[in-house]
Write a structure and sequence with these properties.
alpha/beta; globular; 7-stranded mixed beta sheet; 468 residues; 3 domains; Aspartate Aminotransferase, domain 2; Aspartate Aminotransferase, domain 1; binds pyridoxal-5'-phosphate; 15 helices; single chain; Ornithine Decarboxylase, Chain A, domain 4
Length: 468
């Protein structure tokens, strides 16, 4: 399924081999980090810095470059780069690469076409790079995390503008697990000679399906995967992948692009974990993934039968629609999350309409059974069956960008209560993770509809530009 065996000439785990042999020597460490390899939490002896032989992430040509090459062979990319600061770092690097590789007419402001459910790293990147955004507006929006899109609207945007965008940026899968038709979108982008970048933070595993559905398999030019979200990798571990047809120049620049947005002390524990994951993916992962997906499919079927509203998502997510609120009765995402948590089961995300659970092959059968047990008990009460969303209407088309993201982010700002924000200009959308998707973005005037939506999602404060 992957051409790893043919392509990998050296070790499967060069970073692990190096660190393991270093720690076994019980070296005298007159170098960072300050724990000196002594055990405080138990993993310190594996945590090193750029000592000789350990390579250096942003100038990699030794064990890190070798390990990245292994990852590239596994994913079928033209090049893969590690990030220890998540897809958040990769997204900013992707925007930088799109900008630096675009041919623009002098004096014209660069812009990117993007979908509105972007993670906040996108907005930070656009502000730092002073990019404008033209929104590929949703056909209809009914949720914070997901949007329904019409491809002909993208074609219209690509056709009607004289100046080419630096690229098209989409999020797929999104936080609720919906996937976009990436192949069609990629074909359209290429027809109009622009690049497709995909925030695939939630979909690293998609390449390892029987029928691979990773953005690289479907024609994307650049994408990022949060390895830590769906693979057994420590938090922060992510990949920046370049598609099969990307130019050599982009490959050369990618490392520097990541360096611009990253720390000069990337975590070796995270690099070690990314490295070790290549081994995990090489052996029986494909089979384990298949079994896990089949188990989730059965769970979904049983839940549907029991009356739950199960969303149609990518295979490793279970998204339940639950939103019934009456004076005496409260049945919504946070309510369900609390019910599960009292049984020791912790979901990924809950909002007033949805609850999201994320699975990997590392969830054992007993974990499936305990989840099933509590969900069946709740559905036996029949209350979960009703749905009646009170979500205010999204009026995306009414939004007005008054100043650029950059100007907004760098302006004098103040945090005020959402209820008093109508008419003010948003400086920085304050929305925490998960899902870190802004409702109103920097530089936009806040409308009455925005306020209703912010309140609906429990957001009480917003950063606005000061009036004085
Ligand atoms: C859709 C999406 N993109 C990007 C990110 C950022 O990923 P990371 O946490 O790896 O920086 C997230 C984080 O939750 C996300 O949900």
């Amino acid at each position: 399924m992957c051409n790893y065996d043919e392509g990998c000439r050296g070790s499967l785990t060069p970073i692990y081999d190096f660190i393991n042999s270093y720690r076994k020597k019980q070296p005298v460490r007159f170098h960072m980090p300050g724990h000196k390899g002594k055990s405080f939490l138990g993993f310190e002896e594996f945590d090193i810095t750029e000592i000789s032989g350990a390579d250096s992430l942003y100038e990699a040509e030794g064990i890190i470059a070798e390990s990245e090459k292994n990852a590239s062979l596994l994913f079928g990319s033209s090049a893969t780069f590690y990030s220890t600061e998540g897809s958040s770092q990769c997204i900013k690097a992707i925007l930088y690469l799109l900008l630096s590789s675009s041919d623009r007419q002098k004096g014209k402001r660069p812009y990117i076409i993007a979908t509105r459910n972007a993670h906040k790293a996108f907005f930070h990147g656009a502000a730092l790079l002073d990019l404008d955004v033209v929104w590929w507006q949703p056909e209809k929006r009914e949720a914070l995390c997901s949007i329904k899109l019409n491809i002909s609207d993208l074609e219209q945007l690509l056709k009607e503008r004289e100046e080419k965008p630096i690229g098209v940026y989409i999020t797929s899968p999104d936080y609720l697990g919906n996937v976009l038709p990436i192949r069609d979108i990629a074909d359209l982008c290429h027809k109009y000679e622009t690049k497709l970048a995909v925030d695939n933070a939630h979909g690293a595993y998609l390449h390892f399906l029987d029928k691979p559905l990773h953005p690289l398999d479907l024609g994307a030019d650049l994408c990022c995967d949060s390895a830590h979200k769906t693979l057994p990798v420590l938090t922060g571990g992510a990949y920046l992948h370049l598609g099969k047809n990307t130019k050599q120049t982009l490959q050369k620049e990618a490392r520097q692009a990541l360096a611009i947005f990253g720390s000069t002390s990337p975590s070796y524990l995270t690099l070690l974990s990314l490295d070790y994951c290549n081994r995990y993916l090489t052996f029986d992962y494909h089979e384990k993934l298949k079994l896990c997906i089949e188990r989730i499919r059965i769970l979904k079927e049983d839940l549907l039968e029991a009356g739950w509203k199960v969303e149609d998502t990518e295979p490793l997510k279970l998204t339940l629609r639950i939103n019934y609120l009456q004076e005496q009765e409260k049945r919504n995402g946070p309510w369900l999350a609390e019910k599960l948590e009292t049984e020791g089961i912790y979901p990924e995300y809950a909002d007033p309409d949805f609850l999201v659970l994320m699975f990997t092959p590392e969830n054992g059968e007993e974990e499936f059974l305990s989840l099933e047990k509590i969900l069946f008990t709740i559905s036996a009460e029949k209350a979960a069956w009703k749905t009646e969303s009170r979500q205010p209407v999204w009026k995306e088309e009414k939004r007005v960008q008054i100043i650029s993201f950059r100007e907004a982010l760098l302006s004098q700002s103040e945090a005020i209560s959402v209820e008093s924000a109508e008419g003010r200009i948003c400086a920085n959308p304050m929305i925490s993770c998960p899902p870190a998707i802004p409702i109103v973005v920097g530089g936009e005037r806040i409308t009455g509809e925005d306020i209703k939506l912010l309140q609906y999602y429990g957001i009480e404060q917003i950063s606005v530009i000061r009036n004085d």
